[in-house]
Design goal:
By secondary structure, the protein is of the alpha/beta class. The chain has two domains: 5-238, 3-Layer(aba) Sandwich (Rossmann fold); 256-493, Rossmann fold, CATH 3.40.50. 33% of the residues lie in helices and 26% in strands. It is built from 17 helices and 22 strands. The protein has helices at 45-52, 76-81, 99-104, 115-128, 145-158, 175-188, 201-207, 230-238, 292-299, 322-327, 337-341, 348-353, 368-382, 398-410, 428-443, 455-461, 484-493, and strands at residues 5-16, 19-30, 34-38, 63-66, 69-70, 84-87, 163-167, 193-197, 210-215, 218-224, 256-265, 269-277, 281-285, 307-312, 315-317, 330-333, 361-362, 365-366, 416-420, 447-451, 464-469, 472-478. The strands form five sheets. The chain has a six-stranded mixed β-sheet, sandwiched between helices. Strands 16-19-20-13-21-22 form a six-stranded mixed β-sheet, sandwiched between helices. Strand 17 (361-362) and strand 18 (365-366) form a beta hairpin. It starts with a strand and ends with a helix. The relative contact order is 0.11. It holds the Pfam family ABC_tran. It is a peripheral membrane protein.
Length: 494
């Protein structure tokens, strides 16, 4: 039986100046299909999505067909009218309005309707999606991120969307919430076709029917998901063979560097105690809302614990703020690099040296030559891809921004490095380099606390694993043949 095609792109090219971002790309989306679009940062995925959504115009000669009909002039309003909706990574809901108002506002229902009609329509849509647990009268600000994603999907249904583009939809979701989202997508497949963009390749295999790989602006591979192996997919993305085993350090566990005793902060974490040794990678896992990030912020003095003590090298310390934490050798690599970790408008050099300026201070001011040399060495060692150290960080891919953030804290000579979601939102190549870097730091005697939602990544990197549930450490074990399913059960049930 011949596949029904709802969207087809032919000869898609896009240039920015002399840089060819997309080069003769062809793409087909079948009716009722979940089609994953994958590739490293900078491969052209975002530009292709913007072209499909009518936000960017391709070069002359490009052809876009919806239901076999050539789209003469694409625009955001025109593509929305044809049933194309984009769910971006950043949630675009009116947080002060109700679920019903967010779902039905501006939908093509004809005329202006009172709230009761909004509530009735929203309830009908959510029930059809299997989302009976969401109260349509609740303000969106009270919903979890996962529930807000479902509201966005419901809004797409209300808009009579036929093509939904989902950009990294699971980046802030727990494993259980991811499965809920996938169940909903599967229920909608009769009405909606999905273009699914993600760096999480395990999830790509779970949800997608077909996969297209972009590399350097070209289609590197395209076939049913069942015909790809994990290794095939990675090699298509990178254009080379890659060893997917995690580079673990070989050093032995050293003396205790840091110990936390009885850390408590109301409604966030209770009676938390653990230690980190020199050269040890300790994984801290838990569902979204378990209190992992809040605990880290307490350790660096950004959010003062109500109770508890922290010891460094056996000596009791009182950390009053981030600056003092850094001075004592505790550095925190934030999960939100754009808001809290980097100066996006500033250069790579400025960011790398910003937390260690004393190193480059001379009698007559900053030693710019020494600062430049240190930045160049970091760029080469960590593998930051950029024209040079003067490039603004905002122009870098997510993976390269993350490497700049690592460089910033490495220059502070940390004794203990807390990394919060260190590989979130980066491509497979950058992930490998980040894990290599963590192993290298541990090999040099740095104690590492690795907070991550990626259970398999923690299992591959950590020496010891702590499980957090509702603000408490409920399980601790040495990572020696640890099973993921057992840890997941502890994460959920405590």
């Amino acid at each position: 039986m011949k596949e029904e095609v709802i969207l087809e792109l032919k000869h898609i090219q896009k240039k920015y100046g002399n840089h060819l971002v997309l080069d003769d790309v062809t793409f087909r989306l079948g009716k009722g299909e979940v089609h994953a679009l994958v590739g490293e940062n900078g491969a052209g995925k975002s530009t292709l999505v913007k072209i499909i959504a009518g936000l960017v115009r391709p070069e002359p000669g490009a052809q876009i067909y919806i239901d076999g009909e050539l789209v003469q002039k694409s625009s955001p309003a025109g593509m929305l009218e044809k049933g194309v909706t984009v769910m971006y990574q950043d949630i675009s809901l009116f947080q002060n309005l109700s679920v019903a108002e967010n779902i039905c506002m501006d939908c093509r229902m004809g005329g202006i309707f009172p709230k009761k009609r909004f509530y009735r329509e929203a309830r009908k849509i959510l029930d059809s999606m299997g989302c009976r647990q969401i109260d349509v009268s609740t303000p969106c600000s009270r919903l979890s991120i996962a529930q807000q994603q479902l509201v966005l999907l419901a809004r797409a249904v209300c808009f009579k969307a036929r093509i939904v583009i989902m950009d990294e939809p699971t980046s802030a979701l727990s494993s259980r919430e991811v499965q809920l989202l996938y169940e909903t997508i599967r229920k909608l497949k009769k009405e909606v076709s999905v273009i699914y963009i993600s760096h999480k390749l395990d999830e790509v295999f779970q949800i997608s029917d077909r996969i297209t790989v972009l590399r350097d602006g070209k289609v590197a591979a395209e076939k049913p998901a069942a015909e790809f192996s994990y290794q095939d997919l990675v090699e298509a993305m990178l254009g080379k063979k890659m060893d997917l085993s995690r580079p673990h350090h070989t050093g032995r566990r050293g003396k205790e560097l840091l110990r936390v005793e009885g850390f408590t902060r109301d409604h966030q974490y209770q009676d938390v105690s653990f230690s980190i040794a020199a050269g040890e990678i300790v994984g801290l896992i838990g569902l979204v809302g378990a209190g992992r990030t809040e605990l880290a912020l307490g350790m660096i003095g950004a959010q003062k614990p109500k109770e508890g003590q922290l010891f460094l090298n056996g000596k009791k310390e009182k950390i009053r703020g981030i600056k003092e934490a850094v001075e004592k050798g505790i550095c925190y690599l934030t999960e939100d690099r754009a808001r809290y970790g980097l100066f996006l408008e500033k250069s790579i050099e400025h960011n790398i040296t910003s937390a260690s300026l004393k190193k480059f201070a001379g009698r007559l001011g900053m030693d710019r030559k020494k600062e430049a040399q240190a930045s160049d060495e970091s760029i080469a060692h960590i593998g930051i891809k950029a024209p040079d150290r003067t490039e603004a960080v905002k122009n870098l891919s997510g993976g390269n921004q993350q490497k700049v953030l690592f460089s910033k804290w490495i220059h502070s000579d940390p004794k203990v490095l807390i990394v919060d979601e260190p590989a979130a939102g980066v491509d497979i190549g950058a992930k490998q380099e980040i894990y290599r870097l963590l192993a290298e730091l541990a090999g040099q005697g740095v104690g590492i606390l690795m907070i991550s939602s990626e259970l398999n990544e923690v299992l591959a990197a950590a020496d010891r694993i702590l499980v957090m549930n509702h603000g408490r450490i409920v399980h601790t074990e040495v990572n020696d043949g640890t099973e993921a399913d057992r840890l997941l059960e502890k994460m959920i049930t405590g």
